């Protein structure tokens, strides 16, 4: 086996990516402190063709050297918007027809193993602060809460890892229906 060259990977150009159809989901980052996490989420969002990333509260915005370090240019391909009030954003997304899922460990959460995205529905996945998680008011406003099963001793995953797992799971399930 040989590693594929960049040409052999046949990736989209920036222009082709921006014009391409995206999967029916957005990511909402609320009060994310680490710019490396933000950059990693941008890179994941490019890989799994998210419609948009919302950066809320204290979450830093591009352009910034620390975001660019892990985004590797994805902050220039993925659509994004800064919104101060995450709760109002969630309400607005719901009024636009998005089903909102807070990614959080709560009573009666839906296991990612059991989550089946409905055809012709748009989803918004909310990821919270590295220490405090998703704000309780957002948890209460969300249509449901999604939880990634974990089997070790730690009670949580890094936010960028969580966004990657959720994005991959969503896209793979959407593609599986095609």
From TrEMBL:
Biological process, per Gene Ontology: methylation; RNA processing
CDD domains noted in UniProt: SpoU-like
Record's keyword terms, sorted: Methyltransferase, Transferase
Q: Which GO terms describe its cellular component?
A: cytosol
Please give the Gene Ontology molecular function terms for this protein.
Answer: RNA binding; RNA methyltransferase activity
Q: Which residues form the tRNA/rRNA methyltransferase SpoU type domain?
A: 26-166
Please give the superkingdom of this protein's source: Bacteria
Its protein name is SpoU rRNA methylase family protein
């Amino acid at each position: 086996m040989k590693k594929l060259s960049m040409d052999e990977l046949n990736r989209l150009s920036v222009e082709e990516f921006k014009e391409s159809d995206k999967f029916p989901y957005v990511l909402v980052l609320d009060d994310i402190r680490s710019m490396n996490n933000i950059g990693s989420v941008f890179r994941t969002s490019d890989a799994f063709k998210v419609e948009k990333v919302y950066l809320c509260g204290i979450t830093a915005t591009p352009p910034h050297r620390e975001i660019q370090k892990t985004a590797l240019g994805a902050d220039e391909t993925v659509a994004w918007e800064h919104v101060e009030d995450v709760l109002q954003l969630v309400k607005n997304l719901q009024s636009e027809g998005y089903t909102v899922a807070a990614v959080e460990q709560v009573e009666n959460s839906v296991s990612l193993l059991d989550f089946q995205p409905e055809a012709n529905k748009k989803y918004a996945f909310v990821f919270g602060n590295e220490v405090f998680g998703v704000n309780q008011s957002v948890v209460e406003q969300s249509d449901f809460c999604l939880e990634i099963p974990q089997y070790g001793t730690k009670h949580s995953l890094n936010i960028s890892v969580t966004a990657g797992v959720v994005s991959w799971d969503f896209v793979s399930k959407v593609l599986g229906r095609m």
